[in-house]
TrEMBL record, chain A:
Its main location: membrane. The chain crosses the membrane at residues 6-25, 32-49, 69-98, 110-129, 135-153, 165-185, 205-225, 258-276, 282-302, 314-335, 341-362, 399-426, 438-459, 510-535. It comes from Candidatus Halobonum tyrrellensis G22. Pfam families: Proton_antipo_M. This is Formate hydrogenlyase subunit 3/multisubunit Na+/H+ antiporter, MnhD subunit. PANTHER family: NA(+)_H(+) ANTIPORTER SUBUNIT D1, NADH DEHYDROGENASE. The keyword Repeat does not apply. One of its GO terms (cellular component) is plasma membrane. One of its GO terms (molecular function) is lyase activity. Keywords: Cell membrane, Lyase, Membrane, Transmembrane, Transmembrane helix.
UniProtKB/TrEMBL annotation, chain B:
It is a multi-pass membrane protein. Residues 125-271, 295-434 form the NADH:quinone oxidoreductase/Mrp antiporter transmembrane domain. GO terms for cellular component: plasma membrane. Coiled coil: none annotated. Residues 64-109 form the NADH-Ubiquinone oxidoreductase (complex I) chain 5 N-terminal domain. The chain crosses the membrane at residues 6-23, 30-49, 69-94, 106-126, 163-185, 205-225, 298-320, 327-346, 358-375, 396-414, 434-457, 478-498, 530-549, 598-617, 629-648, 655-675, 681-699, 719-738, 785-803. Keywords: Antiport, Cell membrane, Ion transport, Membrane, Transmembrane, Transmembrane helix, Transport. Pfam families: MbhD, MbhE, Proton_antipo_M, Proton_antipo_N. Residues 716-804 form the MrpA C-terminal/MbhE domain. This is NADH dehydrogenase (Quinone).
Length: 569, 812
């Protein structure tokens, strides 16, 4: 059944953005609105998740303006969309709470809150839309807000990073328009379900299939740029370092995943056509995607090992980690029909690959946003994230240290943290492909293993430099002793402490930040021990992503279409 | 049984979680709280043993992945669990004395308990991935324990090294486990329907897929890194940066024992007879089966080679050691090599060796480490050259050290002798059965054992002779530190005196766990007649005794050889440093910060992807013909646009470039007019005008000079431009060639209008507007419009942000 709950996440985020604009006169009201908006977003996503996954799984369309598909814009919530929205809601809530104490008062009142929620609106729209051109629009919403948030501090390096980020994304937007226009001209439709239907049965709609592979490849380049996969990763390190920590958390945790989501949605649901009728797409795209993923894993890992600041290290790590997310997609495309026993049924390797990518993406969203936020807390307390100016923080801020360690270990894939299960599924996808005789799967596996070793190398390097070792001069000045929570700052201030142990307000801000970090760390442990929930949701999502038939028939279900075909409204 | 097993495994974790609270109440006496927790575990393990528990118990964990928290109880599991919890009690008690006044005690005891719990989990796990979970937790807790003195550079180095090596090895093993569960269709290790129960069929599946040897190597890699086998032994000597009780625990009962445990656990699987007779196709398969039966099993040549190599190399390194803990660390690796070689051998003596030596090594090595802890604590040094004659100051300790080092040396009638003798026996039979190069096995075993003899006697000699004058006052150890090694020393003595009681009690069951097929009962005796392996023992001890007077020369000789690439550490250090240095030099070259580079890569990537796809799809170029209604005016306008585009590339200045570019834009606008699209034309004109004005305003503030690019860069850019232009041109050409049944046409048909007519009425009816563009924008695709409106709002916000934040930054 069609349901307005589908559109709710977009509306909540947009409404919050507008409300935080009109409450600019009062900083506290604005902050409260923003955090409440984050909570409301989480709540509606929970309702949607329950509707689509827990009491289903079903595919729920929503026909915007009551125009029937394929004429108007259709939003579609299925298990895949719900999974991605859930990921966005968790990270978004953490980031909005963290940001309300991290970004300075002036910046918050100026534009931070509206931009943040516009970004969430763009992300939600991208996850929910069932229309190719509408996807472009939500990309633009998401990107426009992230442009501003990247250059938010407006310093020299921020402007430079933002310029690179903007220009590369504008190029990608242009390419995307060409591809969308081409696909409309070729298939005669913009509605994704309709396009899938037409590609599966081209003769019935007078569709010439030949150009679609090239057009799909153009889209792949665009999505790869959004996801930051080599060789489209160039904007990532500078932009992640320039943006305020809570924004980087969302950029790395969620916005990057929009690219991954788009690859899954377009290639597995739409271009794969009914029952892999159009296998040529997979045969061409799969190996290329695996190659790009492998290059990302190696380059991101090698790049991260030698960085001299936590932010830079984490940014390069993101390039590597997204490689791990994309790799199983490529491998799954290379042998899509291989059957594997997974989640209590015989499924295809394509579905396993998608599930692996999703679980890994979920872990990366939690772990990387935690790590970027922790890096933000370091910045807020010590004033730097340079490795040589930190040290000895495990004894001074044990909770930040413990959270950081859990985040890092989850990136490595240490059980029973949720990251382990991501690694497990990625490795399993490659192992099944190798055992099934897929050429190159062994190489993919070897690259993934090498990348995992690199992950251990850079996580332990950062840990040793930041949390162990002799505290640097800076650390000794700012945090002369262990930080003991709200109210303890007064003594430190009289001892000559500056920003770290300063006023009660700073202490309260720090308390909120540390609480956020601990909450995310607990999520990493909780979703690891209770990983069945995540794997089950990912399995449903993977099924939804590969079940083109189910997607198409839900969108064109005469019972839900407004007035039926041709009835108008 | 399930409740007991769950209690054994999770009690230490609960205990660890409560430790910070307990520490607040008890302070340093937390050691005894932790020891009590370990004692309860020990009692529970004893209960499992006493009730004769055997088999699988499980609770669901991740049913979607077929992973359950399954436990399997048998002799091998119980022995390791006994060692972990029993030695755990002693270590934690000992810590109460050793850690007096040390920093970070709450963390220390919590981690030590978690360490013990993880090891109990490894021992008892009956599911591949549950095993892996506890396996990685042992690596993790030893990371924290090795790095206990967090501000020490060397602790950090050691902790990172152990983490890098053991966790990496674990990940390789994980892939091996995935291959196993793929082939066996189960994640259960032992019990009904498990990998071990269906070993034959599973091994055959692996062989057919060509994955048998890779799987063996991957699983072996996990065991080798954990059990510090050459060349991964390098982390173990550094791990002595941990407080000594941790070293004793890590070397005797936990962590490194996990690797040999795994080898013992999977021994029956990988040695399972490969039976292709029933399923083979023709003679070739039968021949292959016959060849497989007579050839040395892969398991044996991999593990015996690895084990003997490790045993020998690390024994030599132990002789070269200058620090008592370093000596013991290398010795641990050496004895683990012995166990691996034993389990590797494809005969019953091999399994007996491994089973018995796990117990013997734990008993004497834990004793020796605790003795070393007493020495360093009471004498204040661990330097071998400055220690001697310690029996005068530490008489009880000297007796314990004597007992344990003679056992380590493999001298009869001590327990170490019996398992060493079994190794010789199994190696000898390998030579006899397979002939040829396998005769090297017994030879190397004897060669390596000579060095074992030498360093064992060296450790003993610390207590003999005259007291060194350099030695200051040596205190008597407190009871808490003396009692645990005394208990272990008594264990060594008891096992030495009545080895067959130990075998009947538990070692026999351990042997049964690691044996292929039916296990027979076994017993050991002091030799009464001359056999080849008795001769081997005699040679070992004889040659060792002959060489002993030359110990210092051998020691110096080994140290002088250990330079550069001969050392595995050289490879590790250069690898890690080279990686960091490589990263520092590669990244600035790739991430140049130049937009030109970035855009070039992105565009080249896009063009390559699309052109490759057109090539792969084998598209033919559609016939190009002039469309109907092409007038001279249209051709002229587009021609001027082309000239404008070409002129941009040779424009001498920014301003000229922008002006020529706008020629192109305005020509397109005119084209729209000619093509009956006034809305588009108006939009285009507005945009072009605005862009031109803004550009000129901005350019006013920039230098007017372009500069001339390098020839090579210009050529590259030219090629790239042509490729990108070609891609877009081809895309448009191909995409517009088809004439699908589009939704726009369908919408018109639905309204019942003949195609090509004026369509206003339908949009008026449905959309409430007479202008088709308006209806599309505000009704049909209203959501797009809403999105774009927010983009415009954000653009305004961005201007605001840039100006306000920047002026604020400048004001600072």
């Amino acid at each position: 059944m069609a349901s307005p709950v589908v559109v709710a996440p977009i509306l909540v985020a947009l409404a919050t953005a507008v409300l935080t604009l009109v409450t600019r006169f009062d900083a506290r009201a604005q902050r409260a609105t923003s955090v409440l908006g984050g909570v409301a977003y989480f709540a509606v996503v929970a309702v949607l998740f329950d509707r689509v996954v827990l009491s289903g799984p079903t595919v729920v369309p929503y026909y915007v303006s009551n125009w029937p598909a394929p004429y108007g814009i259709t939003l579609v919530a299925d298990a895949l969309s719900a999974f991605m929205l859930g990921l966005a809601a968790v990270v978004g809530l953490a980031a909005v709470v963290f940001g309300s104490t991290y970004v300075d008062e002036f910046g918050q009142r100026l534009s931070y809150h509206p931009l943040f929620h516009f970004m969430m609106a763009g992300v939600s729209g991208a996850f929910l839309t069932g229309d190719l051109f509408n996807l472009f629009v939500w990309f633009e919403v998401m990107l426009m807000s992230s442009y501003v948030l990247v250059l938010f501090y407006s310093g020299r390096e921020h402007t430079r990073a933002a310029l690179n980020y903007v220009v590369l994304n504008l190029l990608a937007s242009a390419v995307m328009l060409v591809a969308i226009g081409g696909l409309y001209a070729t298939t005669g439709t913009l509605n994704m379900a309709d396009m899938a239907r037409r590609l599966a049965d081209p003769a019935a709609y007078g569709v010439e299939l030949a150009p679609t592979l090239g057009l799909a490849s153009l889209l792949l380049a665009v999505f790869a740029l959004k996801a930051g996969v080599v060789p489209f990763h160039f904007w990532v390190p500078a932009a992640y370092r320039a943006a305020p920590a809570p924004v980087t958390a969302v950029l790395a945790g969620v916005v990057k995943k929009v690219g991954v989501y788009a690859i899954i949605r377009l290639f597995f649901t739409v271009f794969a056509g009914g029952a892999y009728a159009n296998t040529a797409t997979f045969a061409y795209v799969g190996p290329i995607l695996a190659l790009m993923a492998g290059a990302s894993i190696v380059y991101g890992g090698v790049g991260a090992v030698g960085r001299d600041d936590v932010d830079g290290l984490l940014a390069f790590s993101s390039v590597g980690q997204v490689g791990f997310i994309v790799l199983p997609l490529g491998v799954g495309m290379a042998a899509p029909d291989l059957t594997v026993a997974f989640a209590g049924a015989e499924r295809t390797l394509a579905a396993l690959g998608v599930a692996a990518a999703l679980v890994y993406a979920f872990n990366h969203a939690l772990a990387k946003s935690l790590l970027f936020l922790a890096s933000g807390t370091l910045h807020a307390t010590v004033g730097t994230t340079r490795l040589d100016r930190l040290g000895g923080l495990a004894a001074r801020t044990p909770l930040v240290a413990a959270s950081f360690l859990l985040g890092g270990l989850s990136l490595i894939g240490v059980p029973p943290l949720v990251g382990f299960f991501g690694k497990l599924l990625v490795f399993r996808t490659a192992t099944e492909a190798m055992a099934g005789g897929t050429p190159g799967a062994g190489v993919a596996l070897a690259v993934a293993l090498g990348g995992a070793v690199l992950t251990i190398a850079y996580v332990t390097r950062a840990w040793n430099a930041v949390f162990w070792g002799e505290p640097s001069e800076t650390v000794r000045t700012v945090l002369p002793e262990r930080w003991r929570g709200v109210g303890a700052g007064g003594d430190a201030a009289t001892d000559g402490g500056t920003n770290g142990g300063g006023s009660d307000a700073t202490d309260r801000a720090l308390a909120v930040q540390v609480t956020t970090l601990v909450a995310l760390a607990l999520c990493i442990v909780g979703f690891g021990v209770g990983v069945e929930f995540v794997v089950d949701a990912a399995a449903h999502a993977a099924h939804a992503a590969t079940d083109t038939q189910g997607y198409v028939s839900a969108v064109f279900d005469p019972a839900t279409q407004p007035g039926g075909e041709g009835g108008g409204h | 049984m399930l409740e007991t097993v769950l209690a054994v495994v999770f009690l230490p974790f609960v205990g660890a979680a409560l430790t910070p609270l307990v520490y607040r109440a008890l302070g340093e006496r937390t050691a005894y709280y932790a020891a009590a927790v370990a004692a309860v575990c020990l009692a529970l393990v004893a209960r499992l043993y006493a009730t004769g528990a055997h088999g699988v118990a499980r609770v669901e964990w991740v049913p979607s992945l077929g992973v359950s928290l399954a436990f399997y109880v048998d002799g091998l599991a119980l022995l390791i669990a006994f060692l972990a919890s029993g030695v755990g009690v002693l270590i934690l008690t000992y810590s109460g004395g050793y850690m007096h006044g040390e920093p970070g005690q709450a963390k220390y005891y919590a981690t030590l308990l978690a360490f013990m719990g993880s090891m109990l989990g490894v021992a008892l796990a009956g599911d591949l991935f549950a095993l892996f979970t506890f396996w990685e937790l042992t690596s993790l807790s030893s990371f924290v324990l090795i790095g206990h003195y967090t501000t020490d550079e060397s602790s950090q180095y050691a902790a990172r090294k152990s983490m890098l090596i053991t966790v990496s090895g674990g990940l390789f093993m994980l892939v091996g486990f995935l291959a196993l569960s793929w082939a066996g269709g189960t994640t259960l290790i032992a019990g009904d329907g498990s990998l071990l129960a269906n070993a034959d069929a599973t091994v055959e599946t692996l062989r057919t897929a060509g994955l048998f040897l890779p799987t063996l190597l991957l699983v072996g890699l996990g065991a080798a890194t954990k059990s510090a086998q050459v060349p991964f032994h390098v982390w173990l000597p550094n791990a002595m940066e941990a407080p000594t009780p941790v070293s004793a625990f890590l070397h005797s009962a936990t962590m490194v024992k996990a690797g040999v445990y795994l080898v013992g656990r999977f021994r029956p699987f990988f040695l399972a007879p490969f039976d292709s007779g029933d399923h083979g196709e023709g003679e070739a398969a039968a021949e292959a089966a016959a060849a497989a039966a007579s050839a040395l099993p892969a398991w044996t040549w991999v593990l015996v080679t690895l084990g003997l190599l490790t045993m020998t190399v690390t024994a030599i390194l132990a002789v070269g050691a200058t620090d008592i803990k370093e000596l013991l660390a290398y010795s641990t690796a050496s004895h683990l090599g012995l166990i691996v070689a034993g389990f590797g051998a494809a005969n019953t003596y091999g399994a007996e060796t491994g089973a018995f030596h796990i117990l013997n090594h734990a008993s004497f090595k834990a004793t020796l480490f605790l003795v070393a802890g007493i020495i360093s604590h009471e004498a204040g040094t661990r330097d071998i050259s400055s220690l001697g004659g310690l029996r005068h100051d530490l008489p009880v300790t000297a007796v314990l050290a004597g007992l344990a080092s003679l056992s380590m040396a493999g001298i009869p009638p001590f327990n170490g002798f019996y398992s060493k003798e079994l190794l010789f026996e199994s190696m000898w039979y390998l030579g006899e059965e397979f002939g040829g190069l396998t005769w090297l096995f017994p030879a190397v075993a004897v060669f390596g054992s000579v060095f074992t003899f030498l360093y064992s006697i060296k450790f003993l000699s610390l207590f003999l002779g005259d007291r060194r004058p350099s030695l200051g006052e040596v205190h008597r150890p407190p009871v808490a530190m003396l009692a645990p090694p005394a208990v272990l020393g008594v264990a060594v003595a008891v096992i030495s005196a009545v080895p067959n009681v130990a075998i009947d009690a538990i070692v026999g069951d351990v042997y049964a766990s690691a044996a292929v097929g039916e296990a027979h009962s076994f017993s050991v005796h002091l030799p009464t007649e001359l056999s080849p392996y008795v001769l081997m023992s005699a040679i070992t001890i004889g040659v060792g005794a002959l060489l002993w007077p030359q110990y210092d020369r051998i020691h110096d000789g080994i140290r002088s050889l250990l330079r550069g690439p001969v050392r595995a550490n050289w490879w590790y250090d250069n690898g890690v440093e080279g990686l960091t240095a490589g990263s520092k030099s590669v990244v600035p070259r790739v991430q140049t910060g130049l937009l030109r580079t970035y855009a070039a890569w992105a565009l080249a990537g896009t063009a390559a992807l699309a052109l490759g796809a057109y090539l792969a799809a084998g598209v033919g170029l559609p016939a190009v013909e002039l469309a109907e209604g092409t007038t001279v005016a249209v051709v002229l306008v587009l021609g001027v646009a082309l000239v404008g585009a070409a002129a941009v590339t040779v424009a001498p200045s920014h301003v000229a470039g922008v002006l020529t570019l706008s020629i192109l834009g305005f020509m397109v606008a005119i084209f729209y007019i000619l093509a009956d699209a006034p809305d588009l034309a108006l939009t285009q004109l507005v945009v072009e005008t605005l862009v031109l004005v803004i550009f000129l305003l901005v350019l006013d503030r920039l230098p007017a000079y372009y500069g001339s690019p390098e020839r090579l860069v210009a050529a590259r850019d030219a090629v790239l431009s042509v490729a990108v232009g070609g891609t877009v041109f081809l895309t448009v050409l191909l995409a517009t060639a088809g004439s699908p049944d589009s939704i726009a046409t369908r919408l018109v048909e639905l309204a019942g209008l003949p195609p090509g007519e004026h369509h206003a009425p339908v949009f008026f009816d449905y959309g409430g507007g007479a202008n088709i563009v308006n209806v599309i924008l505000v009704d049909l695709r209203a959501m797009d419009t809403m999105g774009e409106i927010s983009v415009v709002a954000m653009a305004a916000l961005s201007v605001l942000t840039l100006i306000r934040m920047r002026s604020r930054g400048e004001a600072r």
